[in-house]
Here is the input.
Amino acid sequence: MNHKGKSSNKEGNWIVLSLIFIVTMFIVAVASVFIVRYSIKKGVSTATDSFQEAYNESKDETYEKYKEMAYELAEKGYHVSNRATISLYAVKEKKDLNVLRVNDVVYIIKDKNETKSGTTSWLKVSGKGVFSVNLSAAEYVVDNARQFVLIRVPRPVIESSNISIDETEILHFKENKWSRENSVKAGEELALEQLGEAKQKIQEDFESNEQYAKLAESSTKSMLEALIKGVNPDAEDLKVEVEFY
Here is the structure.
């Protein structure tokens, strides 16, 4: 009888322990589910907050970035639209541009055996000339956006019409009074011939002088640049380039 009682007690104790274990496991399971759900909810909430914060920061940065880009583009557009329109009217009005004045002295010697009347005439002739550029043949390229002008013009030349005689000095003069060709008319013709020869020689001197040619080109560039900038005072950054053909 005692043996059976002990067995019954053991079985009762085992059942109780089993129930306690089951209840405990249930509580642990419920608690685990609650903890997991809370953790997930908290994690999602934290992730959502972090995302919202990052999104707001990114949005603000993007807004500022594009605002600056828009401002820069607007500034560029403003400056481009406000660049002065380059005017060449005053330049195109001019047909010729005098760029360099030069002087020369030549000696014209006519001995008696070189003249019809046998008159000897030695002259010292001073003259001057002007190199000019034909602007009516000029070509223009204008870039208002870049404030740039390219001008292609003929090289400076000196025409006979731009040469004048300033002074004539007689170094030696002797008439052949016994010549039938000797007359006032013959004297006038000789004088005109010598002055014409002097003018031609002066022009040849000017045209063959390489230094004059370089000075004339340099003067042309300076004068055209000054002229164009002078009639476009609002174009502060205006650049002018001159080419010869």
The chain has two domains: 1-82, 89-244. The beta strands are 96-110, 120-134, 139-143, 148-153, 163-174, 239-244. The radius of gyration is 53 Å.
